[in-house]
Amino acid sequence: MARYRGPRLKITRRLGDLPGLSRKVISRNYPPGEHGQKPKKPSEYAVRLKEKQKLRFNYGVSEKQLLKYVKTARRVKGSTGQVLLQILEMRLDNTVFRLGLAPTIPAARQLINHGHIHINSKRVSICSYQCKPGDTISIQNKEKSKELVQKYLSFPGLANIPSHLEIDKNTLTGKVNGFIEREWVALQLNELLVVEYYSRK
């Protein structure tokens, strides 16, 4: 399934607050559609599917990518759910967003695709690049790039920068100091349900 490019508010109404997808505030907090206001008890499958969809839409990954990340997380020692969240949080597009250099993950993806982002002084245009502790993220040395990022920094998507990241707003340089801890993940979800959803695949 390809990356979602449709209306974002429809997704946030159905799944709840997704800080990486959109900054728009929901005025109607019930799901879209004619049956949205008639609450019914969801099945166990529906509960697990909803948690999985939260991950997919918030981080902007395809079904194929998410399944690949789950398989990778299973091979790593430790809690599969937490390792999966770490893999998704350490993606370059999410790291740029969490540093405040972009208001949403789709906006961060656009910055990366257009060549505005450098890692360790080398231009990187792959959004799924896995950031590592010690990586330095900087902005292309062009006035237009810096103006755009300065504007984004004035209105960050999330108020707090996670403890594993640091940013120098004067030089527009960010640094990855380690791996993210579970309490710093901004998305509200139960990752164990996502692992259970994929347990048969």
From TrEMBL:
PANTHER family: 30S 40S RIBOSOMAL PROTEIN, SMALL RIBOSOMAL SUBUNIT PROTEIN US4M
Domain RNA-binding S4: 90-154
Source organism: Erythrotrichia carnea
Keyword field: Plastid, Ribonucleoprotein, Ribosomal protein, RNA-binding, rRNA-binding
CDD domains: S4 (cd00165)
Protein name as it appears in the record: Ribosomal protein S4
SUPFAM superfamilies: Alpha-L RNA-binding motif (SSF55174)
Record's GO cellular component terms: small ribosomal subunit
SMART domains with a match to the protein in the record: Ribosomal_S4, S4
Signal peptide positions on this chain: none
Sample GO molecular function, one term: structural constituent of ribosome
Recorded name of the encoding gene: rps4
Similarity comment text for this entry: Belongs to the universal ribosomal protein uS4 family.
Pfam family, one: Ribosomal_S4
Domain (Small ribosomal subunit protein uS4 N-terminal): residue spans on this chain: 3-89
GO biological-process terms attached to the record: ribosomal small subunit biogenesis; translation
InterPro entries: Ribosomal_uS4, Ribosomal_uS4_bac-type, Ribosomal_uS4_CS, Ribosomal_uS4_N, S4_RNA-bd, S4_RNA-bd_sf
